[in-house]
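Table 4 source record.
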Amino acid sequence: MIVTYTPDGDQAQQWEFSPGRIKSSEAEILQKRYGGTWDEFKVGVLKGDMRARRVMLFHCLRREHHTLRFEDMPDFFDEELELEFTKAELEGMRAQVAQASGLNADERESTLAALDVQIADAPEGLGKASSKN
């Protein structure tokens, strides 16, 4: 997932956030800051839980500002933080939907069509060629 943080009147900052590639020691810190389980945190980020997104942004900012404390996190507007799935992530979701047994044919086809539209416009990832211009 590509995280773009554009503080009001400042330049955009971007990171790739992949929960599966976070070491357990870092995950424990994020989980503690979030106040729930690791799975709840990951779902919270996707569902728009502002606490989860604030913790995720803390993780991203801390990569560059190693001494940043959670208490010193900037207060941000929702519109200043954007999350975007990469092409590979969306293709993985598409494969899961294609194999899902709990969907009827109409649900499957409409979901696959929606994913195909998103895949066509999705970025490859940071530092890689993107289909968006």
